[in-house]
Design a protein that fits this description.
Blueprint lengths: L4 E19 L2 E15 L4 E6 L12 H19 L4 H8 L6 H19 L3 H5 L5 E3 L2 E3 L5 H14 L4 E4 L6 H10 L5 E4 L9 H7 L7 E2 L8 H9 L4 E3 L6 H10 L4 E4 L1 H4 L2 H14 L4 E3 L6 H10 L14 H4 L5 E2 L9 E3 L9 E2 L1 H7 E8 L1
Parallel strand pairs: 5-6, 6-7, 7-8, 8-9, 9-10, 10-11
Antiparallel strand pairs: 1-2, 1-15, 2-3, 4-13, 12-14
The chain binds 2-succinylbenzoate (OSB) and magnesium ion (MG).
Length: 373
């Protein structure tokens, strides 16, 4: 079925987190997000989110480069297409090299629109097999181990099924060991955001003793070779985040033996089409597990993460927490909530299954641009 677009609006919103989120690459309290709203001729709408940050720290993209690429290249490409199927959009966007977060935000909006026009939940359209997804929590670097233990206790009380702690040199073995000692049975993993090298083998040998689910992106953000070497030395599974930007990277990681697990983020890989390709290769063909990661999304991006996490190859808890873990006020209704059993329900309503509160979006916007097609 072909959709005909009538209007696209891009919003630059700024969202204030409830508390600072610190990783090895920096600290965030207020974050930008570009929200992409597409409207077809019948009046139905779809929404997507660009997860590029304020600065080029997690990847080279920023909200400014994404705005530029969307405005100058993606929307002109889209307006020439005529028919808006996600696969066709993804193929047309592939002429632009890189800028995956910019592409993903626009493509997500097309997916949400397609699902709404068909009257089906997005997770079903994607081929999801479950109506609840397992929720874990990603905990930033804290001021002290006591603070960390307090924060971990709070999230476990709420029912989160898995704890991930951010690490960096100087904040690694000690904090991880403290959490493990306090909670011998809690599913626990660490995320280094590329802060180490093979010279840090002693740290990895110590982490290897803590019965971690996995170690996420320990080495350089673009590396596959050194991760393969590390994977041969330690027994804790290695999970790649930053290094996997496409299905090609996933194939290379498999051939080289760089990872056992992938943290799948639609923004990092350029959208849901490429996410499905990675799922097809890594999970359906190779039988390896993956899970869905997050970028502190608003309720819009979170909806796409929830839909993706219903796929069969998702076999670990996800970095998809409830709205109230991040924000006092989300921009969707209802906000995303955690069930007592530590899951989030994939909605049965069409599209991402939540309503976007446009007035709230407009209030949070510092820049808006409308395109008429
Ligand atoms: O590395 O997974 C990461 C947030 C921003 C940038 C990178 C990462 C993260 C998280 C947060 O870990 C996950 C979430 O959205 O809850
Ligand atoms: Mg990560």
């Amino acid at each position: 079925m072909g959709l005909e677009l009538r209007r696209i609006v891009v919003y630059e919103v700024w969202m204030r987190l409830k508390s600072e989120f610190r990783t090895s690459f920096g600290s965030t309290l207020e974050r930008p997000a570009l929200l992409v709203r597409v409207e077809e001729r019948g009046g139905e709408e779809g929404w997507g989110e660009v997860v590029a940050g304020e600065g080029p720290w997690y990847s080279y993209e920023t909200f400014q480069t994404a705005w530029h690429v969307i405005d100058s290249y993606l929307i002109p490409t889209l307006s020439k297409l005529g028919v808006y199927e996600p696969e066709r959009v993804a193929r047309a966007f592939s002429r632009v090299r890189g800028h995956n977060m910019a592409k993903a935000g626009v493509e997500e909006a097309i997916w949400d629109l397609k699902a709404r026009v068909e009257g089906r939940p997005l997770w079903e359209v994607l081929g999801g097999v479950r109506s609840k997804v397992e929720s874990g929590v990603s905990i930033g670097i804290q001021r002290s181990v006591e603070d960390l233990l307090r924060v971990v206790a709070g999230f476990l009380e709420r029912g989160y099924r898995r704890v991930k702690i951010k690490i960096e040199p100087g904040w690694d073995v000690g904090p991880a060991r403290a959490v493990r000692r306090e909670y011998p049975d809690v599913p626990l993993q660490v995320d280094a955001n590329a802060a180490y090298s093979l010279a840090d083998m002693q740290v990895f040998r110590e982490l290897d003793k803590l019965d971690l689910l996995m170690i996420e992106q320990p080495l350089h953000y673009d590396d596959l070779i050194d991760h393969a070497e590390l994977a041969r030395i330690i027994s804790t599974p290695i999970c790649l985040d930053e290094s996997i930007k496409s299905v090609r990277d996933a194939a290379a990681a498999y051939k080289l033996g760089s990872a056992q697990v992938i943290n799948l983020k639609p923004g990092r890989v350029g959208g849901l089409v490429e996410s499905l390709r990675i799922h097809g290769l890594w999970s359906s063909s190779l039988g390896r597990p993956l899970w869905v990661g997050g970028m502190l999304e608003t309720g819009v991006g979170r909806g796409h993460l929830v839909a993706l996490a219903t796929l069969p190859g998702v076999r670990y808890p996800n970095d998809i927490s409830a709205s109230d873990r991040y924000y006092d006020e989300d921009i969707v209704e209802p906000p995303w909530t955690l069930n007592k059993d530590g899951t989030i329900t994939a909605p049965s309503k069409p599209g991402i299954g939540v309503e976007v509160l446009v007035e709230r979006v407009e209030r949070a916007s510092r820049r808006t641009k409308e395109y008429r097609l």
